[in-house]
Amino acid sequence: MILTVTPNAAVDKTYRVEGFRLDRVHRPSKTHTVAGGKGINVARVYQTLGGQAVCTGFLGGPQGQIVLRALAAERIAGQFVPCAGETRICIAVVDPEAGTQTEINEPGPSIDPREVSQLLRRVQSLLSQQAFEFVVLSGSLPPGAPETLFAELVAMARSFGVKSVLDTSGGALREGLAARPWMVKPNRAELESLGGPLEGEGDLFERARRIQAAGVVIAAVTLGAEGAVLLCGDRSWRAVPPKVEFASAVASGDAFLAAFLWAWTCGERRNDPETALRLATGAGAANAAVVGAGFCSRDAIFLAAQAADIIEV
């Protein structure tokens, strides 16, 4: 079982618009509205693979109620802390003809110190009552939340003997790294938020090694259609996903992370980085072939994993 913490959850809207252009009126050929936020997406794919997940974070206002109802419909357990502000809306416009994806993400509700304390107490309570294999700390922080929030949660998870996984950016990533999570999974943009633009693959691996040097056991960097790199101990791999008919990249990194964690503890070859990377790469590709964050099927994930190319470097 995993616990996902999504401080900045959202109502996710994906619009499929062929021939999307600026300064035009468009009518989507397909729309998809779901409970969103990176940790929620991770939970969705983790349960699709057969695991169990509990989600927490902040929710507020009518949009927060939409998220709660959507999670209940999917039978994903939600233990969210209410906040005074309104949960955000995130919009992705996907143009399958051009292979582009344009995102407009609201900043989220303003969080006060009392609400932060309530979330910390909620996570502590959940960790004391249930046996979790991982605590997944994902996404952006809403306005008002301290950049040290994820770092505090990493330390809390360690005090309960639970592995923590960090997937964020900017100051939250820097502070979280200092707390030494078990795994860190930035995408290219999130990694560049630490040290500027990447200059080739050598620089990519060097940045990942710096993450490891901070006391992290596993460093993975997702690269969209280019796949991912993974470092574990003194070994490293390059993953190349199979080609798929592109539908939407929303949550492909989250699908990658969910499948990696599921394979690590529930797959046929447990605690094996290469096996976990293969399934993770398959999940990222399978998710890119569907509209909606994390709505790829279990069969599609395993099928894409078989076609992935995993190279030790």
What is the ordering of alpha helices and beta strands? EEEHEHEEEEHEHEHEHHEEEHHHE
Oligomer: single chain
How many helices? The count is 10
CATH topology: UDP-N-acetylmuramoyl-L-alanine:D-glutamate ligase
Helix share bin: 25-40%
Query: Based on the structure given, which CATH architecture is correct?
Result: 3-Layer(aba) Sandwich
Unreliable spans are: none
Radius of gyration: 18 Å
What's the pLDDT, averaged over the residues? 95
**CATH C-level name:** Alpha Beta
Strand element count? 15
Class of secondary structure makeup: alpha/beta
Q: How much strand?
A: 15-25%
Largest β sheet strand count, sense and barrel closure: 11 strands, mixed
Summed up, the domain count is 1
Shape: globular
CA(first)-CA(last) distance: 32 Å
Question: What do we call the CATH homologous superfamily?
Answer: Ribokinase
Overview features:
globular; 313 residues; single chain; 24% strand; 15 strands; alpha/beta; four-stranded mixed β-sheet; UDP-N-acetylmuramoyl-L-alanine:D-glutamate ligase; eleven-stranded mixed β-sheet
